Structures
1.
Amino acid sequence: CNLAHHRTGRAAPPAGDSVLFEDTSSAAPAMNNQGYYTPGYNMGGTSNDMQGGAGVNNLFTDPMANAAMMYGSSLANQGKDMVNKEISRFMSVNKLKYFFAVDTRYVLKKLMILMFPYTHQDWEVRYHRDTPLTPRQDVNAPDLYIPTMAFITYILLAGMALGIQKRFSPEVLGLCASTALVWIIIEVLVMLLSLYLLTVHSDLSTFDLIAYSGYKYVGMIFTVLCGLLFGSDGYFVALAWSSCALMFFIVRSLKMKILPSLSSDSMGMGSSAKPQLRLYITVATAVFQPIIIYWLTSHLVR
């Protein structure tokens, strides 16, 4: 009895002593009869997370990685600067913003001048320190907001007119839009070529020519609307009115841009022919507008 009691006392450690190894056998996952662990036991999950975090920290603390990131950022900035430089060669973003510097008051007054130019008296473009004022400050300054919005409205109105006549299709509408855009490009190129061949020094830029050429869409919208509402008679009356108003507007506007330089060339050789040629350019540009209006709107009204 004493021997058994002595063995029993040696088998159980004292309650106050510390345990060197924790017994985790009770927490181990159960094994099935095929010798595999049952699902739900994540083995080594904590160590993977720790390794992933350490990898990210090593990426940011590695000098080579930081140098590579800085080099890639510098290459991206250089590429952005090159793209902006190439764009600036053909198109000035700041100058483009100038043509869209409009407000509601300017748009309303400009539309009234386009439709009723005969009542407008002062056509001179104002300057401030050799810089033209923005459209919102000068109603005579050309803009690109009205031509852009008028072009979009014309395409939408053409789609509605074709739908009323049951002739609408995406191909026909796309052809209508592309034709209107091509006519603008041709007109601007012809004007630039004429000014270059005649060595005319004027304040007209490419954006100015696009603006003056795009104002015809306002008259085209008015013509198509009258044709849809009042038939062919209303169409031709509106065509005559918008054509005359646009021609008057173009002549008075371009007169302030092209013809003022006549006095500066009056001292040169052969200058007697240049004033007439410049006047012909202005008049030809104005007379060409009704032809384009009729070409782009006649098929929409039947």
2.
Amino acid sequence: MAAISPWLSSPRSFSNPRVSSPYFKTITGPHTLGAKFLPDSRRCTSIHAAISVLDCSNEEQHRISSRDQVGMKRREVMLQIASSVFIFPLAISPAFAETDASEAFRVYKDEVNIFEISIPQDWQVGQAEPNGFKSITAFYPQEASTSNVSIAITGLGPDFTRMESFGKVEAFAETLVSGLDRSWQKPAGVTAKLIDSKASKGFYYIDYTLQNPGEARKHLYSAIGMATNGWYNRLYTVTGQFTDEEAAEQGSKIQKIVKSFRFM
């Protein structure tokens, strides 16, 4: 049976190997080889401290993991917003509209997705394949034209409750447009330039241009806002586009359409 040396109430010199320090007690025996251990109270304190450190470490890792997940979701949403720029209607579908004869505009209402928007009386309404979106609706002239307005709806997680969840409008716009730019590639791809951005009444408005090498420059004007359908939050990206050649005829009209977007 191993013998346990008694606790001493006063300090002792470490020159005598048989004498214990007040901070340690020595256990001797055939299997201990004079190993020294912290007293029970200090061992408990050390264990509690170690557990506390581990708990803090786990909490920090959880916070980092949560931030990473939010960041990934933010990047995913930004990619979907960027891809909505290239949407064009695939099939015409009927829609309920109220006519505003004085302006030759009609009000398109979507009761399911709880929004309304004013469009020119003679414009067509089309539905595109969702392809990762909850819904895509597009509006465009009857005559051949590259001008159009699209509304893409994206589902959001509980971390996104308002537009500021994506950061300030300036940073949001810069991230969106820089993410579209490929002018640095060799050979050069699309050139994207930010013209203006502002926040108003819960929406982020972004004005920018895109130009593929050898093609006409496109102007894009987007209104991006957030609403809930009662179960989860959704991001609405309303984007109007027109080329330099159509700017005089379609520019102000398309901006008016985008600005008319409202939640019902």
